[in-house]
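Q: Could you write out the predicted structure for this multi-component system? I'm mainly interested in how the pieces pack against one another.
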Amino acid sequence: EAEVAQSPRYKITEKSQAVAFWCDPISGHATLYWYRQILGQGPELLVQFQDESVVDDSQLPKDRFSAERLKGVDSTLKIQPAELGDSAMYLCASSPQERDTGELFFGEGSRLTVL
Amino acid sequence: QKEVEQNSGPLSVPEGAIASLNCTYSDRGSQSFFWYRQYSGKSPELIMFIYSNGDKEDGRFTAQLNKASQYVSLLIRDSQPSDSATYLCAVRAGNMLTFGGGTRLMVKP
């Protein structure tokens, strides 16, 4: 069964350091999402891509966060410098463009702890 | 800002009972509505979606939508301990899918 791949699963870093997360969506899925989920809260959209183009990044803290999906396939989310409040689960999800049921297929997530 | 509101819980029900989970949303232009289940430490998974006013049933799950009241609910019949999880309501308006904060459900044996 096709899955969304994410790495690393866990990351511990000190504040002010740089962190990067990688996501490989299900093959053929045009839409890719990065969500941040703080413990006890719902997922919050950071950025949405349609192929290689950004559809929505209104909630992305652009002073420290960046995201790219250069060839419209895999994607990288970067944080520099990391802050204590960035500790969260970073979820990548994808969906096929032609079937807009709203079903997102999530990866297992990358849990970030900033010390 | 478009909002999706849920009671955080925990909602505790005995095994075999009906669990009722509720969600309200602020954007009247919302078109479709989803319930995701998230087990502790795991990623969300879709369990139901609904587009039209009324009820939609799938096994032990029933989704209910009332667009006039901007209200969507999920009923779980014959609740099982394995249903214990956080249930996330998600609402789509245009390209945006917005999640609520989730309701934690605990089903006691």
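A: Regarding packing and overall arrangement: The CA atoms of residues 37 and 87 of chain B lie 5 Å apart.
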